[in-house]
């Protein structure tokens, strides 16, 4: 099973809308800036992510995407 690690919340929200499960971890760099990483364990995750950036056929409901995006933003800010 392949791992896909993303720090970009927008494709992460898209993958969540497509039904993929994720884990989350936090990393800090030398400047003490924290970033949250979403880890997807799915063989289709990379292909779905490429489709998201390419604007291809995989469609999700705008309301569902907005709700998931809001949930992930809340998670990131409270992590």
Jot down its keywords.
alpha+beta, globular, 3 helices, single chain
Task: Please render the helix and strand layout as text.
Blueprint: E1 3-6, H1 9-17, E2 22-28, E3 34-41, H2 45-54, H3 62-78
Antiparallel strand pairs: 1-3, 2-3
Radius of gyration: 13 Å
Distance between the termini: 26 Å
As residue ranges, the low-confidence spans are none
Helix content: 40-55%
- Outline, from the CA principal axes? globular
Looking at the chains present, what oligomeric state does this protein adopt? single chain
Biggest sheet overview = 3 strands, antiparallel
Describe the structure.
With 79 residues, the protein is an alpha+beta fold. The protein has one domain (3-78). It contains three helices and three strands, in the order βαββαα. The chain is globular and about 40 Å long.
Task: Briefly characterize the structure.
The mean pLDDT is 88. Helix 1 crosses helix 2 (45-54) and helix 1 packs across helix 3. The protein is built from 3 helices and 3 strands, in the order E-H-E-E-H-H.
């Amino acid at each position: 099973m392949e791992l896909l690690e993303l720090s970009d919340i927008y494709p992460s929200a898209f993958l969540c809308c497509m039904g993929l499960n994720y884990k989350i971890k936090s990393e800090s760099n030398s400047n003490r800036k924290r970033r949250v990483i979403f880890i997807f364990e799915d063989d289709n995750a990379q292909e779905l992510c490429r489709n998201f950036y390419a604007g291809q056929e995989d469609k999700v409901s705008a309301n569902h995407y907005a709700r998931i995006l809001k949930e992930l933003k809340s998670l990131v800010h409270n992590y």
